Request: fold
Amino acid sequence: MHKAGFVNIVGNPNVGKSTLMNQLVGERISIATFKAQTTRHRIMGIVNTPEMQIVFSDTPGVLKPNYKLQESMLAFSESALQDADVLLYVTDVVEQPEKNMDFLEKVQKMDVPVLVLINKIDNLGKAAGAAGKPGQTGDALLGQLVERWHTLLPKAEILPISALNKFGVDMLLKRIYELLPDAPPYFEKDQLTDKPARFFVSEIIREKILLYYDKEIPYSVEVSVESFKEREKQIDIRAIIYVERESQKGIIIGHQGVALKRVGAESRKALERFFGKKIYLETYVKVDKDWRSSQRELSAFGYNLD
Reply:
């Protein structure tokens, strides 16, 4: 029998969901940076073998929304609870298990298998020291975390992993395969994701902005691909970087355009690796006041506001 199913990844911001997604899929599908709230959409990555198809979904970190963009991000996360065949709840060794109990209570009510993944176990020693318990061993801290998660989610299986170092990832894949229902594939066997090429262009450019700018700037930015023309050996791309304020536009561009040139150059290199073709990239910056709070603008950028 062929197995297939939807395996959805949820959890609070900055616990390593996107890094795990990329390791499971074997491709860089999701932005993975050190900054919180990096993922804004629900992104599917599909793993195919002759015997199975796993449709992974990476979701935004769960948070209490302060504006309409974050409302959309939370909606993507909550939708992952509705259609999962297996749910991966990602936490880490420093996060308090009781954080965001409203969302956890929804997870508690689920009837599908739930795997709690305690990520970043390579940092257990540092975590014990940061908790003010320098004499405590990493194993003791891990044992305490496992107990607390068993109390919160008694039906869940708990697995320690390090997504960054691939520790436990193969074991996790094996367990997912065991839990998948018998079903035919949902997508073509050569399909990697449900997102179009333009989506990954905007995500790669946004990743570079997240890496190279500080404070609020990256969170006030959205990227739209205005033109994507693919030829045999080259792709010509025109992208618009939207910000909310004129002052932010100046920061993105930088003195004599140096900052924007750097973003463009680094984005082009990453896009050439992603598509395997030469990339000609033009980037422009425009102001779209308060786009994060505008239902019309967010819908145009592809955010779910239902």
In short: The first strand starts at residue 3 and ends at 11. The chain has ten helices and nine strands. The CA atoms of residues 121 and 142 lie 8 Å apart.
